[in-house]
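Person: Please work through this fold.
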Amino acid sequence: MTPATSLFTPVEADLQILADNLKQLVGNRHPILYAAAEHLFGAGGKRIRPAIVLLISKATMLDQPITARHRRLAEITEMIHTASLVHDDVVDESDVRRGVPTVHSLFGNRIAVLAGDFLFAQSSWYLANLDNLQVVKLLSEVIMDLAAGEIQQGLNRFDSSLSIETYLEKSYYKTASLIANSAKSAGLISETSLEIAEHLYHYGRHLGLAFQIVDDILDFTGSIDTLGKPALADLKSGNLTAPVLFALQEKAHLEVLIEREFAQEGDLDQALALIENSQGIQKARELAAHHASLATEKISILEPSESRQALINLSDYVLSRLY
């Protein structure tokens, strides 16, 4: 499998600048928040979201260098993503992410919530300073979507009547909205046509959905190293994802186990066996492949370049994580 980072060769130097800048953006006026940010931004991550912003910036500027505003947009995108992870870990009570302790397990829930709020506020301030109202609107919507997705997920726990459409809507809010809207924003900063900006939005949307579906499949087939969190975490917490929803269409007894919230001994193992003996994982793979293919189709509108090719290869990489 090609590692994601090797796809980012055209923006490797830019990502290094981004990594150095992120800690400085938080500032050191608040020692605890600075320590939390340093921990977060030093935690490794693949930096997929800012890499997409930088690749789109290069692919839409072509022979011209990308601007300071493109770089700042990439930094804002990573800050928003990181803030959402801090809050997610509090809600999910996760002690580990990407192989390192989470902020709330090191600093406590109160600091983690405040650190997440602080990063959202900082990103909003830098966003306003881009002086581009369209971009401000798009990224502000992302922050609302992240909260809406988390609330929707909480309300739908152990709901075996959940539809694939509702699952995809929640996946858009939680994962794809940031990728889609920051991709479109990069195009707007490059002053592309509105038609191209829309294609960039749909590239990000379909790539983000494929990415989330693959993550949800890996919850069943991956290890803690692949996931950065314990396997089966979603199923245990009642977060029903594509493999489960497709399996429910075949296995009636799975509904019984979910409705009683795996309360009896052996319920979880039984549920896992039912999912593995169904077409659930295969159908989820097909759904991910469908969205990855649409992402490739949307980005192909750009003129050929090394950066455009990297964005196409990213669609393949998302699916390759399954094999």
